[in-house]
Amino acid sequence: MIIKISDDALARAMGADELARAFERKGHEVHRTSSWGMHWLEPLVEIDGKGWGPATLEDVDDILEGGAAEIAIGAIEQHPFIARQQRLTFARAGKTRPLNLQDYEATGGWAGLRRARQIGSAQILEEVTASGLRGRGGAGFPAGIKWQTVAKASGPQKYIVCNADEGDSGTFADRMLIEGDPFMLIEGMAIAGEAVGADRGYVYLRSEYPDAIRKLERAVELSAGIVAPFQVEVRVGAGAYVCGEETSLLNSLEGKRGEVRAKPPLPALEGLFGKPTVVNNVLTLAAVPHILVEGGAGHYGTLGMGRSKGTMPIQLAGNLKHGGLFETGFGITLKELIYDIGGGTESGRPVKAVQVGGPLGAYLHPDQFDIRFDYEEYTEADALIGHGGITVFDDSADMGAMARFAMEFCAAESCGKCTPCRIGAVRGVELIDRIRTGGRTADHIERTAVMHNAPKHGRSQEQEIGLLTDLCETMKFGSLCALGGFTPFPVMSALKNWPEDFTGRADREAEAAE
Amino acid sequence: MEKIGEIIAEHRHREGPLLPILHAVQEEFGCVDADSEALIANGLNLSRADVHGVVSFYHDFLDKPDLRPVVQICRAEACKARGVEQIMDAATAAAGERVKLTTVYCLGLCSAGPAARVGDRLHARLDGPALAQVIENA
Ligand SMILES: Cc1cc2nc3c(=O)[nH]c(=O)nc-3n(C[C@H](O)[C@H](O)[C@H](O)COP(=O)(O)O)c2cc1C
Ligand code: SF4
Ligand code: FES
Question: Which residues form ligand 3's pocket by a CB distance below 6 Å?
């Protein structure tokens, strides 16, 4: 009897290693597989396709006897959370051992690369473009067009850079993919290399993901002979959020400060060490092997809606009963994601707000939950899909505090290149503090005679709100990259939807004091 | 000093060797101090200002070692949504002077926060007492 227990970092954080050892001590063979992505059930034990979770050491004997009814979920593939998904990028999730080459081959691994090598660059470019695949890192730029630009650029040395910085809170799909199916990422990079004429690839992987680093380094060693002459190297980040921005990432790879570069020149033409470079997110590259199998591009293009083609691995995070990874075609509504799939909040309280797209994404109000997962629909709502993370908050959340945090985060992570972001974010924190305490009065310096130009009357809460709005406009239009440019999204959406969380606090505190 | 020379020699042939070198030095000595910066600058034919600029840019590199055990606690949005701020007082109390608490923005366990990291070991679904326990064991 083979027992499957994931060795994904989340499963391990919940005690999967100890559990696996307990089954082994009983004389059973344990396969450490990737995670199905049903995080509330980790560690999940699978025997003959049936699951038990979350399992503890006390459940081991019961599970082996087929009991433990209270944590039994029956056939895993029929579980509604799994059955409702369309899994392409995560097709192997829960099923294979991440570093086992036989498992990979047996489930269609390397078929895309083999075919890519037969059909050659022009045909690969055509199929990737035809599939409609867009970048999954946030901006949603068509992958095929980026690749064409690099392919056309001349030069003996070109690079494929995989952006595995995954700094957005509320996202973990890159981590799960690298930990769970690292060969697929390597295959995708090798295909990209074939398409544009690059023989070297780098994966820039954040230092906060120790398990992913270890596994990917091992996977690179194991597959070196298969992808050769293409070579992959893993480089570890150093804790800077902004290094997820592609030009900052390239500077960091070159051994410089992770400052954002002005564009043009596009990285596609002058990227790493000034050479033509493809920079793509993990999920973008991992979608490629599937697209490159016979008929794959056509199939991919039939999924999704509008100009958002294919599937998106959506990450359900925060205060949700059923959090985890949910891959599906574009077009699903937030309502479905939060209630039907996520099961509502774990705390059992009403949902107050949902942040989509990481720390730079807008906070959406329950009135907006009919919005469909689609790049264009989100843009229209002054929101963004970003990397597909959904963070749910219940009614105990203080949205004024969350807006302040957005500014604080921007100040802490700013690369420092432009003023609206570097200074503006600091001022933003101060402004929100003042709004929340009811405005400001002129300080003793402003009241001195020499400061005759300074207003003597202080500023009301309303005026401070006007100033915050103004500051956000300046950051939006005056920042070089989306860190400064998009921080206004969470701030302004919080202010617009929950103004009482900004203005009400001072009143409430005054009331409480009375 | 010798060790730094070895680290530089090991990486200098690579494309963009500085970050791998800084990681190795940080790992070996628990910091990248001014002396190390000078040696690295010398070894890579860079100015000390160049190297210092890079070291000071990244959160992972420290300018002096801290011998205390470190517990990283995620305080990003999804962990806030799951109550990390409410257990920070208990964490600070448990840490006292003995353990260093640092803030990290996301460990990729966002469906199961609050989350913490000690060395390469991760912890999820923490409540006040569980986090205090993690800190005590650090
Ligand atoms: C502040 C900031 C942080 C970013 N972080 C990431 C990240 O962690 N991962 C990522 O893939 N893209 C990130 N991006 C987007 C990248 O700049 C770039 O668009 C992406 O790597 C391109 O790949 P794609 O076309 O496959 O999405 C970030 C952008 C900004 C402005
Ligand atoms: S917006 Fe901020 S992070 Fe982006 S380039 Fe300007 S200073 Fe750097
Ligand atoms: S937000 Fe805390 S682990 Fe991601």
Answer: A 169-170; B 74, 76-79, 106-110, 113, 115
Q: What is the pLDDT of residues A257-278, one digit of tens each?
A: 999 999 999 999 999 999 999 9
Cα–Cα distances (Å) from A362 to A13, A120, A513, B76, B99, in that order, read: 30, 42, 34, 15, 36
Domain boundary residue, one of A349, A366, A394 = A394
Q: Are residues A131 and A263 in the same domain?
A: yes
Contact B108 A171 (CB under 8 A): yes
- Residue B24 domain boundaries: 2-57
Residue where a domain terminates, one of A258, A286, A302: A302
Q: Given the CA of residue A422, which atom of ligand 2 is nearest to it?
A: 7
Residues A45 and A128 in one domain: no
State phi, psi for A147 to the nearest 5 degrees.
Answer: -65, -40
Report pTM: 0.96
Instruction: Test B59 with A240 for CB contact under 8 angstroms.
Output: yes
Q: Which percentage of chain B shows pLDDT scores above 90?
A: 96
User: Is residue A417 within 6 Å of ligand 2 at its C-beta?
Assistant: yes
| Domain interval for residue A458 | 399-513
Does residue B44 lie within any of the structural domains? yes
The pLDDT assigned to B79 comes to 98
What is d(CA A70, CA B125) in angstroms, rounded to the nearest whole number? 20
| ipTM computed for the complex | 0.96
- Minimum distance, in Å, between the CA of residue A111 and any CA atom of chain B: 30
Specify whether B52 is located in the same domain as B80. Answer: no
DSSP A363: E
Per-residue confidence (pLDDT) for residue A262, from 0 to 100 = 95
Task: Give me the residues of B, 99-128, that contact A with CB < 8 A.
Answer: 104-113, 115, 117, 120, 122-125
A55 within some domain: yes
Same structural domain, B79 and B132: yes
Interface test with A, best of B110, B121, B122, B125 (most A CBs within 10 A): B110
Tell whether B52 is within 8 A of chain A (Cβ). no
Q: What is the DSSP letter of A436?
A: H
**Using CB atoms, which residue from A172, A175, A240 is nearest to B57?**
A240
User: In this structure, are A292 and A330 located in the same domain?
Assistant: no
Residues of chain B positioned with their CB less than 8 A from the CB of A257:
53-54, 57
Does the distance separating the beta carbons of A42 and B16 come in below 8 Å?
no
The count of structural domains within chain A is 4
